[in-house]
Write a structure and sequence with these properties.
With about 375 residues, the chain is α/β, with parallel strands linked by helices. The strands form four sheets. It has a seven-stranded parallel beta sheet with strand order 5-6-7-8-9-10-11. The chain is globular and about 60 Å long.
């Protein structure tokens, strides 16, 4: 593949509903899409899953825009690339900025699969034709609203419910949820809202038969999570603490958690995600694919990586209609009774609707 043109789009899309976590509420999603083209006229698409503010991670939309335009795109443009894994060495001089790196990495993987005439899932080594999916629900001030949301999503067939928690919106909330839904597959996500001083609160969650507690402590921390896991019956799932293969390796050696959530953007792309997958499979650490409130482009990449064997737990790749009045891909991602059918067309298996893309684009830049 010779990359002859790259286009970066900055978008602003309004989600159907506000989404609240321990670090704030978001409804307007500002993020980037990257389109890479080869001389045969094929396009590959990747999503930079940023937000306008650096709340989940240190990157944000404007910083990734600069990183892509000034540093990463010049490393790829007019390069002859035999395989997407080669981007690892091209980008190795630049520290972190994984969301920006992932945007190009995933776009090149899409282009690679299209150039081979095969689905992206197959290019990655995935074997599944269907995947089970769960859904993530934000914090609600009114418990009745939350209970109704859970009932709605359970009736829609989602295979797992994830609830966001934070101090004072935790034990009492989960207790009420379990009173109404005693047997549904349920997990909680703290987004780093607690410290070891809160161990007694977190231990109270053991009584609710949760699948896992996701990222209870500080982002990047491995040592305190290992200390906490020893005191909990409920498995800890690491999210913001895993940014690389080395993070995953060290977390497994330390016993920092029993499950890992892979987010393609957070780990720097599909190549790194696949490498972490292989390590976790070898070490018998279950995986699932987390969501970043993606548009259909990012959602398509999540579907592809989840076809790998060790993604054994339902991920957060809900239907497009969960988040958007109208997505920017055709067809939209749909879920039938908690099951998503993996597309079989070349690449990501979905087409970007250019008219819809431009409706949400506030700035774009072409490199050739």
């Amino acid at each position: 593949m010779e990359i002859t043109e790259i286009v970066v789009y900055k978008l602003n899309m309004k989600m159907k509903y506000p989404f609240t976590t321990s670090f704030g509420t978001e409804q307007d999603r500002q993020f980037l899409l990257v389109e890479v083209k080869n001389k045969e006229g094929l396009s590959g698409w990747g999503e930079c899953v940023t937000s306008e503010k650096p709340l989940y991670i240190e990157e944000f939309t404007d910083s990734s825009w600069i990183m892509l335009n000034k540093f990463l795109i010049p490393q790829v443009l007019n390069q002859h690339i035999e395989h997407p894994e080669e981007l690892q060495s091209l980008f190795s001089m630049y520290k972190r900025n994984n969301l920006a790196k992932s945007a190009i990495d995933t776009a090149v993987w899409d282009l690679y699969a299209k150039s081979k005439g095969i689905p992206l899932a197959e290019a990655l080594g995935g074997k599944k034709s269907t995947i089970e999916v769960g859904v993530s629900l934000g914090i609600e001030e009114d418990i009745q609203v939350l209970l109704q949301n859970i009932e709605d999503k359970t009736n829609e067939g989602y295979k797992r419910i994830k609830l966001k928690i934070k101090p004072e919106k935790d034990v009492a909330v989960i207790e009420k949820v379990r009173e109404k839904f005693p047997t549904i597959p349920l997990m909680v996500d703290a987004n780093s809202a607690y410290t070891l001083a809160d161990v007694n609160i977190l231990k109270e969650l053991d009584q609710f038969n949760l699948m896992m507690i996701e990222q209870p402590l500080t982002a990047g921390d491995l040592i305190d999570h290992a200390t906490l896991q020893k005191q909990l019956k409920t498995p800890i799932c690491l999210d913001e603490s895993i940014h690389s293969y080395e993070d995953a390796r060290q977390a497994i050696e330390l016993g920092s958690g029993k499950i890992i959530n892979i987010k393609i953007g957070r780990v720097g792309g599909l190549t790194q995600a696949k490498k972490i997958h292989d390590l976790c499979q070898k070490e018998s650490i279950p995986l699932w694919c987390g969501g970043m409130l993606e548009s259909g482009v990012g959602r398509a990449h999540n579907i592809a990586i989840t076809t790998l064997k060790n993604f054994t737990l339902p991920g957060d790749t809900a239907a497009s209609s969960r988040y958007w009045e109208k997505d920017i891909i055709e067809p939209e991602v749909t879920v039938d009774n908690g099951i998503l059918t993996v597309p079989t067309d070349p690449g990501i298996g979905y087409e970007v609707n250019y008219d819809d893309l431009m409706k949400h684009t506030i700035e774009h830049k072409t490199f050739n």
